[in-house]
Specification:
about 375 residues; Hydrolase; hydrolase; Lysin; CHP03883_F420-assoc; hydrolase activity
């Protein structure tokens, strides 16, 4: 192995700084607001995040919710959200990128070629993050503290994307204070989940590393598979096939599919559980909750062709099904075993539901002896 190859690092494959700057440049402008309005909105979101904590504790009955008030909450704009995600992606993808370098045949990339390659992938990732940055209302990031030079606490950080929350509440013409609290109930639930299951961050990171390494590790086949996936997406662009997306088409062998199945089940649980908490509130807490639910659920039915294409490419519609499938699982378990029975999922990785159990809660209840 020559000197140049030993110096080549995984980060050379993606220019993360360029990804963040590209996303900031391409992200659509947020709603027009004066500095005073922005400051008030930030204070309101922080207050909503704080107020939601005891309600999450009451609904979930997880003692971990008691210690959330002092953990990390950031109210961010779209560019800051994108930058935060480049930091987390760098953590999650490093093992896979290392595998790509190790498995690459022939001489190592020259510094010029590596810089060019990193710029291309960085720009592409930035374009994706720019699109997503205008869609996400909030996000709990459990991996933030693992990034180099990160200032995030070990427990992770909660990001509330202010321009998107404000855009949606204006679009739906709903009460801002009610809507912000409703959103924070969902996002704070994710923080409770990882606080209640401190092993969950490591477990998910290992599964993500396993899937990404399997998917990206063989650099000799990834381009052929990506080309085939893109062709598949193009051929069905007039109407996406339920449950499929170009990225999912990259998966071929049983190990890859098993990894994705497990991650799908876990994400369905996390999102469904948070949605159940969000929907457990009544008008005594969020007076206009019925109006918010109705109008929020109607969103997205009139998306344009381009947005539908991008959502299919990124698998976002599959993610929306996770909310529904996971919520059905949580409600079915609670109906039989109560919230205490459901909370057994946070005890160990062995108690997490499989994808089959997500779709048939009786299987999980039987396995748990409930």
């Amino acid at each position: 192995m020559d000197r140049m190859e030993t110096q080549q690092q995984p980060q050379s494959l993606i220019n993360w700084e360029l990804a963040a700057s590209t996303a900031a440049r391409l992200a659509p402008a947020g709603p027009a607001m004066s500095p005073v309005e922005i400051a008030k909105a930030v204070d309101s979101l922080r207050s909503s995040a704080d107020i939601s904590v005891p309600h999450v504790h009451e609904i979930t009955r997880l003692e971990a919710a008691r210690d959330l008030r002092d953990s990390h909450v950031l109210v961010v704009d779209r560019a800051s959200w994108a930058k935060a995600n480049t930091q987390s992606f760098a953590v999650m993808l490093q093992p896979a990128l290392r595998q790509m370098l190790d498995s690459r045949r022939g001489p190592a990339l020259t510094p010029v070629a590596a810089a060019a390659s990193g710029a291309i992938t960085g720009s592409q990732l930035g374009a994706v993050l720019a699109f997503l940055s205008s869609k996400v209302l909030g996000q709990y990031d459990p991996f933030a503290s693992l990034a180099p030079e990160s200032k995030a606490p070990p427990a992770g950080r909660l990001l509330l994307v202010a321009p998107n929350i404000i855009s949606v509440e204006r679009e739906l013409a709903v009460d801002p204070d009610d809507f912000r609290l409703w959103v924070c109930l969902h996002e704070q639930t994710h923080r409770v989940q990882f606080a209640a299951a401190p092993w969950l961050r490591t477990h998910m990171l290992e599964e993500i590393e396993r899937l990404s390494t399997n998917l990206l590790g063989n650099v000799d086949s990834i381009m052929d598979r990506a080309t085939a996936a893109a062709r598949s997406l193009r051929d069905r662009s007039a109407g996406a096939i339920p449950g499929r997306g170009a990225i999912l088409d990259l998966l071929q062998n049983p190990e890859e599919k098993a990894s994705l199945s497990h991650l799908t089940a876990v994400m369905s649980l996390l999102e469904g559980h948070a949605n159940v908490v969000m929907d457990a509130v009544d008008s005594t807490l969020v007076p206009t909750v019925k109006t918010i639910r109705q109008r929020f659920n109607q969103r997205g039915k009139d998306r344009g062709v381009m947005e539908k294409f991008i959502r299919s490419l990124l698998g976002l519609d599959a993610k929306m099904r996770q909310y529904s499938d996971g919520a059905k699982f949580v409600r079915a378990v609670v109906a039989v075993a109560g919230m205490e029975g459901l909370n057994r999922v946070w005890e160990s990785a062995e108690h997490l539901p499989t994808e089959s159990e997500i779709h048939d809660a009786k299987l999980w209840l039987e396995r748990m002896g409930l």
